[in-house]
Each structure stands twice: as C-alpha cells, then as structure tokens.
C-alpha cells in the first residue's frame, strides 16, 4: 500500500477556536505565513475562524500567496456580520449545519437553515453545506440532500471527523461504527427521490460513499488510500501539526518550525510507515486494494481491539 511521498501536503485543515483560541494574533500570523510559504493548494479554516479577531489577516496572508481558502461558518449572527468584509475575496464558504440538527433522530431545523442560507446569499456567498457524519447526524443526511435539491445548493460536504484538540464539540463516542452504518443503510434504502439535481457530493468515508453512491468510485480517485501525512495535514488550535484531523499524532509546532521542516521530520515518516502496513483487522479482505485500510487515524487511535480496522467496517469481506 505504498504511495509516492509528497514534499508538502496539498490540503490542510486548521482549527481556529474563535475568540477562545489560545494563540494571539502574532502567533496565528506566524502559522499562516508558514502555511502559505509551503505552497499548499487548499486550506480550510475550521471551527469558528470568523469569531477570531485575526481572521482578516489570516485570510489575506493565505489568499495573497495563492492558497484556495475554504472558510467554515456556523451561521451565527456574529459570523454573518463578519462575512460582509469577505465579499470581495475569493474564498469558498462552508456552512456547517451541525447546530441545526436536533436530537438523536436527525431532525433538521429547516426554517433556520433556509433563512441563514438566504442571508449568506444576500451578502454575496453561495455556500456549500457541510455536516460531519456523526452517529446522530446520519438520519439527517437524506433531509439535507432534499434541502440541497430544493434550494439549488451546489455542494454537500460530509467530511472526516476531528478527534484532534478539544474544540470540535464532540468526542469519540459520537463517531459512528459499523452497526450505525448498517442502520443508516436500511434507512437510506427506504428513501424515495423526486426529480431535481443533486449537489456535488464530497464524502470522506468510503463506506458511507458506497451507500450514497453505489457503484460510483470515479469521484474518489483522489482518496486512493489514507492520505494522512501525505496530501493531508491538520493544524490544531495550539499550532501543532498533525497528519490529519482524525489522527492525533504530533509532528511538531508551526510556531517554532516551518511546515517543510516538519514534513521532512522523523514523526511524519513514521506515520507513513504505519499507513503502508495493512491493518491486522483487514487481513484476508477481498476489498483491501479498494479501501486500503480506510481511515487509519481513527482505526489506530480508537479501534485497536479490532485490529485497527476502520470504525465503519464490519470486517473482512
């Protein structure tokens, strides 16, 4: 399962915990400069970047150096007020709708979702919708897809979970496993769909992708095997670099080292050696060449009792 190693990641997520960030503006600017200097293509500012006083200088630093910036917004009034200053910038807005999913049955607050989307569009943004597929979020996915159809939302993002840091708002117990996915598969099979264009789907997890888009793997070409510590990287709220948001493994601090230095460090290469080894829980699986062990960060961190297999995988096929 060996992959060509990249000199720098292509995509990076950066957790910025709003006005609760432990870092000051100067420290955040140092990190932004080092990310920009590394020549990354895509940078996602996650959590609550618009609530941090430094957000303007961070966005300007990254955009001016050629990074394509994706900015997560949870739709609060304070965030929307800040958005007006971004209307002239080439930034992609990701509307994180997690706060609008109520209870364990996936009820979606459609009234607030509709009004918030309209406000964002009035300001000048046509956001993609984003929902981390936690256990209690799975039932909301069909409703969210119908909303995208009805309101002509161009993209729906179901990203990987974040278990690095403490500001994600959920913990390992909220992550779905294979029984949850089996229940969702049955729920999905009961859905009926009327005409209307679907949004472009951006789904990190292979097993969820198989349910939502059976037989269609061509759009997952860029996810050929776990890319943690290769084309993917994550910066936590303290400025520490990790292989990805689902793999808490310290590679070093961007406050004291350049990204290029850390990417050539021993910890990063140790991560890639782990990725190259097939999980013990996948031995004998006929589809190992397809999933290549799934999400290695979650498997290694949270599923050692099952041979470090992906949490959403029932077992070898």
Structure, described:
With 317 residues, the chain is α/β, with parallel strands linked by helices. It has one domain (11-277): Alpha-Beta Barrel (TIM Barrel), CATH 3.20.20. It has helices at 25-37, 55-64, 77-83, 110-123, 141-151, 178-189, 206-212, 259-263, 266-276, 288-291, 296-302, and strands at 11-16, 42-47, 68-73, 91-96, 101-102, 107-108, 128-130, 155-158, 200-203, 232-235, 240-242, 252-253. Helix 1 packs parallel to helix 2. 44% of the residues are buried.
Structure keywords:
ten-stranded mixed beta sheet, 317 residues, two-stranded antiparallel ribbon
What's the structural blueprint in terms of helices and strands?
Elements: E1 11-16, H1 25-37, E2 42-47, H2 55-64, E3 68-73, H3 77-83, E4 91-96, E5 101-102, E6 107-108, H4 110-123, E7 128-130, H5 141-151, E8 155-158, H6 178-189, E9 200-203, H7 206-212, E10 232-235, E11 240-242, E12 252-253, H8 259-263, H9 266-276, H10 288-291, H11 296-302
Parallel strand pairs: 1-2, 1-10, 2-3, 3-4, 4-7, 7-8, 8-9
Antiparallel strand pairs: 5-6, 10-11, 11-12
Helix pairs in contact: 1-2
